[in-house]
């Protein structure tokens, strides 16, 4: 069973991402939305939590925060709102980390 883990809080304000990463298993995807997208910045210390995980980030939230694709860790898939819906529809379970 695959799970979509949705993280919307900044990894610099809460430990949601670190907790989420501890529960991720093979086949799971971490979707970063809202302030959670800060975790995908390659130069940030929170990026280490994403090592070895399948990661997607919501493009409009990256854009709203001025984060360009060139600033992201390698392998992050940028999705739009349709891609967000597709991830939910193609996953067995969804867990939001607050």
Question: What would your notes on this structure say?
Answer:
- By secondary structure, the chain is of the alpha/beta class.
- It has one domain (3-97): 3-Layer(aba) Sandwich (Hypothetical Protein Ychn, Chain: A), CATH 3.40.1260.10.
- The chain is built from 3 helices and 5 strands; from the N terminus they run E-H-E-E-H-E-H-E.
- It has a 5-stranded parallel beta sheet.
- The mean pLDDT is 96.
Mind sketching the topology for me?
Layout: E1 3-7, H1 16-23, E2 29-32, E3 54-58, H2 59-64, E4 77-79, H3 81-89, E5 93-97
Parallel strand pairs: 1-2, 1-5, 2-3, 3-4
Short key terms for the protein model shown above:
globular, 3 helices, single chain, five-stranded parallel beta sheet, 98 residues
The portion of residues assigned to helices is: 10-25%
Q: Predict the CATH topology.
A: Hypothetical Protein Ychn, Chain: A
Count of separate structural domains: 1
**Beta-strand content bin:** 15-25%
Q: What's the mean pLDDT score?
A: 96
**Corresponding CATH superfamily:** DsrEFH-like
Main beta sheet: 5 strands, parallel
User: What gyration radius follows from the Cα positions, in whole Å?
Assistant: 12 Å
Give a brief description:
It is built from 3 helices and 5 strands. It has helices at 16-23, 59-64, 81-89; strands at residues 3-7, 29-32, 54-58, 77-79, 93-97. The two termini are 22 Å apart.
